[in-house]
């Protein structure tokens, strides 16, 4: 199963193959394995940027705000099926770190108590949660995690006792470990805590069922697997029954129940707009929505199926080629416990990753101390791309 002909045969029968043509790929020789950091641009997003700039900005001018004000909520509705959410439960707004700050603060203001997270969480999340905990005067509990196994749900459940909030990444940014959202959410609820999921590394790569898990809150990026564009607005999710009772800390006019009344007093909107703040970045939003549309159209079931096949090929080639060269697997072996990328570890990982890009046209990324992350985004990565990327990696490291 590790030969090039088999990889080519899988491309020939790949039902998502035609999606590659929907992306702008100016340099066909470049093997791009970093879609979990910045997705490639859909052709339609580039066209939409031009169209929005000319027709809506240049021609429409300020009149375009009549429909632009609806875009954060409309973008949330477009995204909702990929989150397992209902219309009205998500919005495209601000950055992930800012949304995390808003929702974590809202949660601990609603019910005071410790915040629980794990050591595998993204550094920005850890900084934000630490700051929220310090300002609220509550404890931050950090549960230990391992790259290969993720974070044991029973340890999380024990830490959640008496806590107000459990906040975790669904897929760990370094190892790709996939948390059991249903089990952890249920255990946290039994312990009396709300749950806030960071979906940055799972949305567009892994099926998500926020409603089915009865998750309370979520945030995430659109510029990774959703191909929304550099700095594209992030999203937030607040379960509908919680929207009227949670108060987020940044009260701006876009969160007002009647923003154009220009009232002197803040009155929070009763719906998802309550969690937005100020003027949205319209051009970025327009591009992000096209990115989301491509993933929604392909369907997360088909995306996940191909993603697993691609990461399984990486693991097979790792076993055959890289393990004998002194690499270690930095991700869970079981594909059911892994997101859309695979980390391979090597003491010279930083240098190998740099040379792979500079000398061999393979873009991966490095996360210290020793992890090279390989992310074959399913919508535009071929099996032969993975094969060649791994082949160049082994030749470089031999
Ligand atoms: C990429 C990522 C972020 C990025 O946050 P921004 O505020 O959008 O820069 C946050 N959290 C996680 C888990 C991520 O993977």
Keywords:
398 residues; alpha/beta; seven-stranded mixed beta sheet; four-stranded antiparallel beta sheet; 12 helices; 13 strands; 39% helix; 12% strand; globular; binds pyridoxal-5'-phosphate
Structure description:
This protein is globular. It is built from twelve helices and 13 strands. The chain is an alpha/beta fold and 398 residues long. The two termini are 22 Å apart. The chain has helices at residues 4-12, 43-59, 65-68, 71-83, 96-110, 123-136, 153-160, 181-190, 282-298, 300-322, 349-360, 383-397, and strands at residues 31-32, 90-92, 115-118, 140-143, 165-169, 194-198, 217-220, 235-238, 328-329, 342-345, 362-363, 365-367, 371-374. The strands form three sheets. The protein has a seven-stranded mixed sheet, with helices on both faces. A four-stranded antiparallel sheet has the order 9-10-13-12, with helices on one face. The longest helix is centred in the C-terminal third of the chain and has 23 residues, at 300-322. The model has no long low-confidence stretch (mean pLDDT 97). Pyridoxal-5'-phosphate binds at residues 95-97, 122, 124-125, 169, 173, 198, 200-201, 221, 234.
């Amino acid at each position: 199963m590790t030969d090039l002909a088999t990889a080519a045969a899988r491309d020939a029968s790949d039902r998502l193959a035609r999606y590659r043509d929907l992306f702008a790929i100016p340099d066909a020789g470049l093997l791009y394995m970093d879609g979990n950091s910045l997705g490639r641009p859909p052709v339609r997003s580039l066209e939409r940027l031009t169209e929005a700039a000319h027709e809506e900005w240049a021609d429409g001018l300020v009149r375009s705000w009549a429909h632009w004000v609806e875009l954060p909520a409309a973008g949330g509705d477009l995204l909702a099926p990929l989150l397992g959410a209902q219309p009205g439960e998500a919005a495209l707004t601000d950055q992930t770190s800012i949304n995390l700050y808003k929702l974590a603060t809202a949660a601990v203001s609603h019910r005071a108590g410790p915040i629980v997270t794990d050591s595998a969480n993204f550094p920005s999340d850890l900084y934000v949660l630490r700051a929220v905990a310090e300002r609220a005067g509550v404890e931050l509990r950090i549960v230990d995690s391992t790259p290969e196994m993720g974070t044991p749900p029973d340890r999380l459940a024990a830490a959640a006792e008496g806590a107000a909030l459990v906040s975790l990444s669904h897929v760990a940014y370094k190892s790709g470990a996939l948390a059991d959202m249903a089990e952890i959410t249920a255990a946290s609820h039994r312990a009396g805590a709300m749950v806030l999921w960071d979906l940055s590394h799972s949305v567009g790569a892994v099926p998500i069922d926020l409603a089915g898990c009865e998750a309370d809150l979520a945030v995430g990026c659109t510029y990774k697997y959703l191909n929304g564009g550099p700095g594209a607005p992030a999203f937030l999710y607040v379960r509908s029954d919680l929207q009227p009772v949670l108060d987020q800390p940044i009260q701006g006019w876009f969160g007002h129940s009647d923003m154009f009344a220009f009232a002197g007093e803040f009155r929070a909107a009763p719906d998802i707009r309550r969690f937005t703040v100020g003027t949205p970045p319209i051009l970025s939003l327009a591009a992000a929505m096209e990115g989301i549309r491509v993933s929604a159209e392909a369907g997360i079931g088909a995306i996940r199926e191909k993603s697993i096949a691609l990461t399984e090929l990486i693991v097979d080639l790792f076993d055959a080629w890289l393990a004998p060269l002194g690499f270690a697997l930095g991700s869970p072996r079981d594909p059911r416990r892994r997101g859309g990328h695979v980390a391979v570890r090597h003491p010279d990982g930083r240098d190998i990753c740099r040379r792979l890009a500079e000398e061999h046209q393979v873009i991966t990324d490095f996360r210290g101390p020793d992890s090279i992350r390989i992310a074959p985004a399913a919508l535009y990565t071929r099996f032969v791309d993975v094969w060649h990327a791994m082949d160049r990696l082994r030749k470089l490291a031999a």
